[in-house]
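Consortium newsletter contribution from the modelling node. Members have asked for a concrete example of what our holo predictions look like. Here is one, prepared for the adenosine-5'-diphosphate complex that several groups have been discussing at recent meetings.
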Amino acid sequence: MTFDTMGFSPELLKGIEDLKFEKPTPIQEKVIPIVLSSNHDIVGLAQTGTGKTAAFGLPVIEQIDLQNKSVQALILAPTRELCIQISKDLQSFSKHINRLQITAVYGGAPIINQIKALKKGTHIIVATPGRILDLIKRKAAKINHIKTVILDEADEMLNMGFRDDLDAILETTPAEKRTLLFSATMPKEVARIAKTYMKTPEEITIGKQNAGAENVRHIYYLVHASNRYLTLKRIADYNPDIYGIVFCRTRQETKDVADKLIKDGYNADAIHGDLSQAQRDHVMKRFREKSLQMLVATDVAARGIDVDDITHIINYNLPDELETYTHRSGRTGRAGKSGISIAIVNFREVTKIPYIEKIIGKKFEKLLVPSGTEICKKQLFNLIDRMEKVKIDEKQISPFMETVNKKLEWLSKEEIIKHFLSLEFNRFLAYYKNAPDLNEKPNNRKENRDNFDKRKRQDNRNKRNKSNNNFQRFFINLGKKDGVLPTNIIGMINDYTRNRDISIGDIDIKDKFSFFEVDGIYTSTILKAFKDSKFRGRHINVEIAEGINEGNRKKKRKRK
Ligand code: ADP
Ligand code: MG
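And here is the predicted structure:
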């Protein structure tokens, strides 16, 4: 199939041609004809990098009535970055359609300018759910005539706590509109949206549902947690041309890892919630330009990142929500290229690998962390390769050659090579001289000890749970609106108290705040631990909620 035969206007075809898209991707091949020739709703499941933006963007642009000045399509996406990306993509598709107006609106930017832009009139709005709802309430965005609503990255929007906003928006749009929903995964919440707001949608699944991109290799290294950073360094040294994202779980860890990498001479930087938008844009610009080889990021900060040639995704540790792994690894292997997703895991995390394999529908390869010798060999060949291929500027260099030759007369060719290599290479040889083996051996005493510890902890926990069913209920000023999930709260309790044995009861996430319950004997530990803490840049306030809840817990949370 080609774009020419799909029924697009010559202007739109010209835009596609400019982009050098040769033929539609599988999801485009399926979605475009349905949108152009019927009025069916669509649920499109496809991993990142499959060309979803054009799949909905092209036919929606084609169907805009330019004479009609009202808003005809609303595209919802989870982040500011994605809104900007999508509207840029639509702009380039429609480069030759002069009068088409596309407006992006999102949080974190002055609303006044967006109101002004909308006042001028627009055919397509690309928006984050929170901001468009605000604009609808202020009567700046009028969506009562829209024909199409598109939910892009629906799973991410729900992950980020936009559930109520989405409900509110979908309820106010005209009943006869068409809805297109795109998602990489199909968790329950996405299915609920489809069931509640869509009319017997056609379901289009590209590749295996929930599968990671076909051309991504998944690898894990089993190491002791204290060796994570050294392992990361070896990965970087073993892949001199690496262009990758290193995912960390917390902002602090992101900063620490990036600081160490920079100190150790790598082209790396961090992107996380503590940075201002301008700082984030600056880091992203350097990464896009490849001035940075490694971007250390939290999952939240990485959500908008849309870069094509990523060679490696490194999971510095596994994500709390295992589904997130799909999003991480989906950032490589895009646009037909191959990529590698590496997980650095310890004994505790390695047990999660089979679950991830189920989610991605693919097996991991367990590889050994490269040894010092292997890395030196790799670096050496890389250096020689670069030396062979280097461009020589004859004109600039020839005036020096005579003197240089004279000075090196006493050295043979072999010796000259040896000297040059050592000059560049001694640093690596020295660093990796006697470098230890970082691999954890499955059968060593350490594992037995770990397992013993684990059993003992479990026993203690069981004992405590039997003897003490008094949970203290706490109030925390984080809710759905902040994108907080039960696992985040469990994670914070674990991290801030540095005690993984505290029994946790119910966790109840409300809109703007939440409650959680913890074994009452840890009340002061919790209050102390959460003092002066932050979540995604917001100060956390934890207080005792009224009344102690007595025993009889039905839902006991399992600890990670
Ligand atoms: P998704 O939204 O599924 O993650 P995108 O729409 O962002 O994917 O597309 C991923 C990349 O593939 C982009 O760089 C885009 O320009 C490119 N692309 C999309 N459609 C085609 C096509 N038909 N041929 C070649 N490249 C394409
Ligand atoms: Mg997309």
